[in-house]
Write a structure and sequence with these properties.
With 165 residues, the chain is mainly α. The chain has one domain. The chain is 72% helix and 0% strand. The protein has helices spanning 7-13, 25-43, 48-77, 87-96, 104-120, 125-128, 133-164. Helix 2 (25-43) crosses helix 4 and helix 5 (104-120) crosses helix 7. The longest helix is centred in the last third of the chain and has 32 residues, at 133-164. The chain is globular and about 60 Å long. The N and C termini lie far apart (60 Å). 43% of the residues are buried.
Length: 165
């Protein structure tokens, strides 16, 4: 661990301090993301297509910025995957919300599904952790977000078909 802290990396990596939440900093990062996503999409509504595209674009940008931020925080903290780094949860949570509407039941479903897959880490999610530094920190959560998105989509299909009958 070094005494030097790269300010931008710690602000980004901890998602403005959400990573210091106890217990379960990852849940704080995911919940902060879900609330922020809801507020943005509630007060600045767009078509469902634009909401999905902007959410995925945000996930890509967060991942691109998160990889070097997570790498720096990991190096400076002396830990391979420090729990305070939650920018990975931000990216994964955004992926999980890519098909959601800005209504609380869908936001909460996306949040719960993402946390389940982030905690369980089914294959190949766990294997992605083995990638070097920030890449491994970020991409396992992005993959968990993809699983959550697929299950979210399947649940929406089932619910839609039940309401159609």
């Amino acid at each position: 661990m070094t005494n030097k802290k790269t300010a931008w990396a710690w602000v980004v990596g901890t998602f403005f301090g959400a990573g210091f939440g106890k217990p379960g900093p990852g849940t704080y990062g995911s919940a902060a993301t879900a609330v922020l996503w809801f507020l943005i999409n509630h007060f600045f509504p767009e078509s469902p297509l634009h909401t999905s595209l902007h959410t995925l674009l945000a996930a890509i940008v967060v991942t691109a910025i998160g990889i070097p931020a997570a790498t720096r925080v990991a190096r400076e903290s002396g830990r391979k995957d420090p729990q305070i780094v939650v920018i990975d949860e931000v990216a994964g949570q955004l992926v999980a919300l890519a098909l959601a509407a800005p209504v609380w039941p869908q936001v909460l479903l996306g949040l719960v599904l993402f946390r389940v897959f982030d905690i369980l880490k089914p294959p190949p999610v766990r294997q992605l952790e083995k990638l070097p530094e920030g890449t491994g920190i970020m991409l396992d959560d992005v993959a968990a977000g993809v699983y959550a998105l697929i299950v979210f989509w399947l649940i929406e299909i089932v619910l839609h078909s039940l309401h159609a009958h």
